[in-house]
Every structure is written in C-alpha cells, then in structure tokens.
Amino acid sequence: MKSNTLSVACLAFVVVATGASYAVGQQPTPPPANQPIPSESVPTTTGGWPTPEEAVNRMSSKLNLTDDQKAKITPIIADRQTQMRALMADTSGRRLRKARKAKSIMSDSDKKIQAVLTSDQRKTYAQMKEQRKEQLQERRQQHAGSDMQ
Asked: Which among 14, 98, 104, 111 is placed 20 to 30 Å from 7, CA to CA?
C-alpha cells in the first residue's frame, strides 16, 4: 500500500506537470527502471518529463494564458520539477513520508499557479485537475485489476 502511495504521487506529478492528457491512442513508454529520471528536455512522448516551457504551453492551450502569465508560471513549474526530482532521487526516506512531501510540493505549486490565474482560468484549472484525478483513479483501478489476474 505504501509503495502504491508513492507511485500514485509520482504519477500524479507527471500528469499534472504535463498540463494536458495524452492524446487518444498514445501511451507513453516509461523509462527503464534502472535509468535516472530523463533530462528536462525529453518530450513527454518518450516517458520523460516535459520542460517547464512545454508544460506551460500545454496549460496555455487550455487556459489561454497571457505572455506575462506564462513568464510567471514557467519558473513555478521548473521549481516544482527540481523539488520532485530531488525527492525521487532521495533513497533515504520512507515511502509514505515521500508521498506526503510530493503532495505538499504539488499543493504549494498549485497555489502559486492559481495566484497568477484569473477567476475564469482558476475554474478551468480546477476542472483540468479533476479530470486528471479521475484519469489517475481509472488507471489505478485498471492496474489493480491486472495485478489480480
């Protein structure tokens, strides 16, 4: 259960960081387990994390961000990715503690992003987060179902 919590937190980060759902029919190829987390420049289609600019561009397509908003959100996402990479690279912590820390990092960055958005954009952003949450739950259920077979 504890390992699932960390896996869920990490997956949630990747989903939130991309700012959009994967295209229908495209499944990302996860990096090999013995490989370090890919560099920031690796596109999401290879299973790596998007650059902060790519994540902001995806968000912008849904939220119609201004250039000023993009400039303010990009460093927030970059900081979030740096913190998440450091957390994932730390092998000394307990999994549950790491999952809580990941959730805290995501929550803090979401608050900063929401502070940059207009009222209408915050509503859309909340809807986007809810959709990603539902997709994550569906994937967890599918994964749990495949483990029992």
From this structure: 111
Tens digit of each residue's pLDDT (9 = 90 or more) over 30-57: 444 434 444 433 344 445 789 999 999 9
Q: Return the closest-CA partner of residue 19 out of 45, 57, 48.
A: 57
**How do residues 93-149 score in pLDDT, each as one tens digit?**
788 999 999 999 999 999 999 999 999 999 999 999 999 899 989 988 888 877 665
Residue 20 CA neighbour count, 13 Å, CB half: 16
Per DSSP, the residues of 46-70 read GTSPPPHHHHHHHHHHHH---HHHH
Q: How is residue 24 annotated by DSSP?
A: T
pTM for the model stands at: 0.65
Helix axes 2-18, 95-116, angle to 10 degrees: 20
Q: For residues 110 and 16, what is the distance between their CA atoms, to the nearest angstrom?
A: 9
Dist. CA 38–CA 121, nearest whole Å = 31
